[in-house]
Amino acid sequence: MKMMTITMSICLALSFMNCATFKGDISGKFESPAARNAGAGDVRVFFIFSHLSQTKGYDAIPKLDSERQRIRGFDDFFQYALNELSNIRTYSTFTNDASDVNDPERRTVRDSLMHTHDYVMKITFRREKSFAAHTFGKIISSASLTTVPVPYKYTYTVEVQLLNSKGRLIKNYSRGTALTKWVQTLMIFVYPFHPEKRKKEEIYVEFLHDIFKQIETEKVLN
Question: Rounded to whole angstroms, how far apart are CA atoms 58 and 56?
Fold first, then answer.
């Protein structure tokens, strides 16, 4: 009976476990005033996306996310951010998959599109976490029945390579930030104001808008 009571108490505590997520500042943010690329000719741009994730200390190398693992709604974030670029006449997109290594047809399509556009923009998103830190956090959270607040940190970065139709690198851009998810029983009262899903979306939206704004202001696409 005593063991059953303890087990039920643990299950009850875990059922009330919740989290609140907080986003850090964007590093490398473009601080200059935005300006439109007035008078620029229309251009065709090919966007190549890569979504990578890695658990440091557990994964040997970063791995490409499957479609299921990628952030939901990314197409909406991207299309919304395109408003920052004023002179794109047409564009195409391609998302790298790990299975492309065994799919010559997809690789051929990607490579051919690189030569039929004025510019190629390779955009790589990375999501990283520490295996040791997260494992230690789970031990503390379980041992304390989630009464001790435990932070789980994730690092997000984006790297953009802008190339011309001949594959020559024109410019590099990068941004980074951290997402900290605090897990604890009473976080249920904070959660509605700081949900993890919204914070993740904010990162992708800010990354894309800020880099596209810089490209537009610097009048790189001409």
Answer: 5
